[in-house]
Specification:
The chain is α+β, with helices and mostly antiparallel strands. Helix content is about 40%, strand content about 20%.
Length: about 150
């Protein structure tokens, strides 16, 4: 069984963030080589390994909690999934004050914009994305496709 193709997706963060630690350590090593002083090979290897070790959980957490995906089946925001049939309307404006934030958090993350949704039971929720207009468009296409099928 093949997974549904994504209408819109944000990964949260890429695994390429792990490359910064070795690059930083390489820059330090090259600086020591260029200055002609003693070169601390083991120290720079340990610095690279240590920075990668603390970056892996950060990348994993951001990929888990900040990722989102819109498919023909529904919408996944972080740890939460909404079936397409539950989305009644995509609001042009933000959701009303007090609406629950999708994805398991208390607030919308920094550097993310809000997309208001009305669910089939009349409850308003707040979806969010780095590019809220693109998310709004994908969700509107999803709702439009679902209503034309009915």
């Amino acid at each position: 069984m093949t997974p549904e193709p994504a209408l819109y997706a944000e990964p949260g963060v890429g695994w390429t963030a792990l490359l910064w630690a070795p690059l930083f350590s390489l820059a330090g090593l090259l600086a020591e080589l260029a200055t002609g002083g003693p070169v601390h090979w083991l120290a720079w290897i340990l610095v690279a390994a240590g920075l990668v070790a603390i970056t892996v959980p950060w990348v994993y957490a951001r990929r888990r909690y900040l990722s989102l995906e819109v498919t023909a089946d529904g919408y996944r925001q972080g740890r939460e999934t909404l079936e397409a049939a539950r989305i009644a309307e995509v609001l042009e404006d933000d959701a009303p004050v007090g609406a629950r934030v999708l994805g398991g958090g208390w607030t919308i993350p920094k550097k993310h914009g809000e997309v208001g949704l009305k669910l089939e039971d009349g409850v308003f929720v707040r979806a969010w994305a780095k590019e809220p207009d693109a998310l709004r468009e994908a969700l509107q296409d999803l709702v439009r496709a679902r209503t034309t099928e009915s």
